[in-house]
Amino acid sequence: MIPRYTRPEMGKIWTDQRKLETWLQIELLVCEALSQLGEIPAEAVREIKEKASFDARRIDEIEKVTKHDVLAFLTNVGESIGPLSRYLHYGLTSSDILDTSLAMLLKEASALILQDMHKLLEVLRKKAFQYKETLMIGRSHGIHAEPITFGLKMTLWYDEMKRNFVRMERAKEAASVGKISGAVGTFAHIPPSVEEFVCGRLGLKPAPISTQIVQRDHHAEFFTTLAVIASSIEKFSVELRHLQRTEVLEAEEFFSKGQKGSSAMPHKRNPISSENLSGLARLVRSYSLAALENVPLWHERDISHSSVERVIAPDGTILIDYMLNRFSSLIENLIVYPENMKANLEKMGGLIFSESILLALTRKGLSREEAYGVVQRNAMRVWEKGEDFKTLLSRDETIKRLMTEKELDTLLDVRAHLRHVDDIFQRVFGET
Fold it and tell me: What is the pLDDT of residues 21-73, one digit of tens each?
């Protein structure tokens, strides 16, 4: 469905093959740790490592009988090892393997997501500097407010994604927690040193305390972070959809040769990538809710979280990978129309300078209420009759009494709105 922007590496993480590889890796590390404690002969561990293998199809056959995936896996691996398989899974419960494996896979997926985010940050940074001084109208409530630059819009998105990058690093750490503590987390049949050894070798943190499972607040934090990232992408996408509207047309998604916008209307060029990303963000947010609902389980564990995670772990990470790459491509190839931005900026006949006039009048001694009244009565004539704001102001008796024509021209100079762009860029990028 979405192969074009999804990296193959992300898909491979969630294959049965990769999952079973992690299961076997964990089991062998436990044997190694027990050998160091004298629980398993060293030569037995060597033979186990040499012989241990699995066959995914054979595991599926066994699971049809056992109705238990880990037991089916252990049976198949035992077939390859022989009598020494009695040392396999010693003192463990299934969730020791499942949860530690999930931590490994989420950590691998996180590394790819962070790479995607780094790429997007670079694309946004490039666009920010490219359009640093490209004037456009800023809008509040969808209505023209005051001038900004398109580079500032890109800078805002960069800064938000930079925060998301930090959140993702934290989420990676939150999910990188394993456990090898037995049926209810008491280490009844295997000491804590085994857990520390296994997690250390896998680059995971051992859970300070667990039940039969790693507690699901770890995973809720991870999937909630994915939801925040998805929501940021949707926020940016919605803005681009607005900017591509026919009446606005300040920016537009790249439309390739041979592309079709509508089965009925040959003229159409639609913001399909942005709309696609808006829809997918809804899915990712729903996964965060599912992860939150996995937190309250019965006693030391029930199985209600398991089926949920088998869906949201691969789907959530694959979707974020897809969304980040598709949005990077969208921004990289975005068509920007500075002339349309300029035309829209001038559409309101100068009303965008109303605050500048208001503040200037208060500096001249008028109360804020008096100044507001002077500016608004002229502004409403522009709204209602389409007159020019500067012309009206230059004829207004109060304005003529308090300021010169040169002062008025200075207040109506759009460049005044750019005087702190360098300061903002310095704050965000550390350079101008």
Answer: 999 999 999 999 999 999 999 999 999 999 999 999 999 999 999 999 999 99
By annotation, the residues acting in catalysis are 141, 262
For 74-102, the pLDDT digits (tens) are: 999 999 999 999 999 999 999 999 999 99
Going by C-beta distance under 8 Å and a sequence separation of 6 or more, which residues neighbour residue 314? 13, 14
Cα dist from 217 to 24, 97, 103, 113, whole Å: 26, 19, 13, 20
Angle in degrees, CA 96, 102, 108, rounded to 5: 135
Residue 334 DSSP SS3: coil
pLDDT one-digit tens code per residue, 230-276: 999 999 999 999 999 999 999 998 877 777 776 678 777 888 899 99
Q: What is the 3-state secondary structure (H, E, C) of 218-272?
A: HHHHHHHHHHHHHHHHHHHHHHHHHHCCCCCCCEECCCCCCCCCCCCCCCCCCCH
CA 159 – CA 39 distance, rounded (Å): 53
Annotate 360-427 with DSSP letters as a single string. HHHHTT--HHHHHHHHHHHHHHHHHH---HHHHHHH-HHHHHH--HHHHHHHT-GGGGGTTHHHHHHH
Q: What is the pTM of this model?
A: 0.94
Question: What residues are paired with 147 via a beta bridge?
Answer: 137
Do residues 126 and 138 lie in contact, with contact meaning Cβ atoms separated by under 8 Å?
no
Q: Which residues, in sequence order, are bridge partners of residue 336?
A: 251
Helix (H, G, I), strand (E, B) or coil at 52: coil
Going from the C-alpha of 332 to that of each of 121, 162, 163, 240, 328, the distances in angstroms are: 11, 18, 21, 13, 6
Partnered with residue 136 across adjacent β-strands are 148
Any residues with CB less than 8 A from the CB of 336 and at least 6 apart, and which? 131, 134, 150, 250, 251
Q: Which domains does the chain have, with CATH numbers?
A: 1-90 (1.10.275.10), 92-342 (1.20.200.10), 351-411 (1.10.40.30)
